[in-house]
Give the backbone structure.
Amino acid sequence: MKKLLALTLAVMMVLSLAACGGSDTPAAPSAPADGNAEAPADDAAPSASGDTIKVGLLANTTGDNAMYGNAVKNGAMLYFDEVNAAGGVNGKQIEVIALDEKGDATEAVTAFNRLLDQGITALVGSVLTGPTIAVADETYPINMPQVTASATAAGVTMIDPEDPASEIRTNIFRSCFIDPFQGEKMAQYASEKLGAKTAAVIFETGSDYSVGLKDAFVEKCGELGVEVVAAEGYSKGDVDFKAQMTNIASKNPDVVFSPNYYQDDGMIVTQARAAGVTGTFLGGDGWGSVKDYASAEDLEGSVYCSGYAPGSNDAVKKFEADYEAKYGEAIPNMFAPLGYDAALLLVEGLKAAEAAGLEAGSDDYKQAVIDGIKGINGVEGITGSYAFDEYNNPIKSAAMIKLTGGEEVFTELF
C-alpha cells in the first residue's frame, strides 16, 4: 500500500506541475509516503541544485501517533506542491526531502543529520514535542530555520521555560499555539462557559505536552477560583485507569481535564464513565480524532481546543476540498492544516531570502529566512492570521470543538 501511495502522490505532483504551463523547469523530487527516499550521500551536498531549493521535512509517519505525522506531512506537501505548480520561489522549485522519525527523539536527531548531509537549507518538523525539542537542540547552534506544525511545549523555542529571561531559540517557529495557552484557555472555558467550580486532572507523567497543559490549567484555575480537587498521573503505555478514575469519581468534579493524546483520552473517558465520573471532559489539541476511540455516548458533551475550525470560511473549504482530492480522504484532524501553514510560513521566509539574492544554504540565506518569518504580520493561513510574539509563538485564537452525536463539531473561536 505504501508503494502504491507513493507512486500515486508522485504522479499527482508531476501532473500538477505540468498543468501550470509556461515553465520548462523540471519538477523537484519529493520523498515517497514512507519517507525513506535519500539523495546520494555527499557531505558537501549543495542546498540548491540548479533551479531547486532543498527543504527537509521530519514527521512520524510510522509508529505510535503516526496519525499526526502523516497529517502534518500531507498538509505540508500539499502547500509545497501548490507553490511548485505555480512556478516555485523566485523561479526555483522546492525540493522536499522527507524522512520518518518514528516519533522518537533519537531517531529524529539521526534523521536530521541525514538531512544535513543532503544539503537542506530549512526544515519543517518535527511533529511531537519530544522529537522537536531534540532536533531544536541541533538546529539552534547552526541557525537552521525550523518551523514545527504541532510541537506545543514552551520549551521548543525557550531553552528554559521556567526562566522568564530564558534564552530564545530564535531560529525556530511554530504554526500551532503552545501548551500553556491551551491549558489556560480550557480553564477559562470551564469557568466562563460551563460555570465550573471544581475540576480534576489526569495527565501522563513524563510527557512535556501533557504536563505543560496540566500545569497551565491548574494555575489558571487557581486564578479563576476553580478548585482542583484531584490531580492523577499515569505512565506512558498504561491502559488501566480504574484507580485514578475511582478517586476522581469520589470527588465528583464539574469538569475533568485530560490533556493527553487521543488513544489514551478515549480509554480514559470510557473507564471514567464506567467508574461513575459524570463531569464534562475537557482536552487539548491532542484530542483530535478521539471520536474513533470511545463511544459517542461516553464522549457526548466533551470539549477540546484546536488550532483549526473546519469549514469556517471559503479558504478553509477550498483547502479541505483540495486535500480530499489529493489524498482521497477528508481532513483527518487539525494537524493537516497546521502542516500546510507550517510550509506556508517557511516559504514566506524563503521568499525573503530569495528576494535578497542570497545563496541557498549560506549563513546569510538562513538568517534571511528566519528574519522573513519573524517579520510576518497578517499573513493568512488555514488556521488563522499569523504574527509572532517575542518567543516566536503565533498570536491566534483557539477553536473550540465539541463532541456531539459522535462527531467533533466546531462551535466557536474562544
Observations:
- The first helix runs from residue 2 to 20.
- DSSP finds twelve helices and 15 strands in the chain.
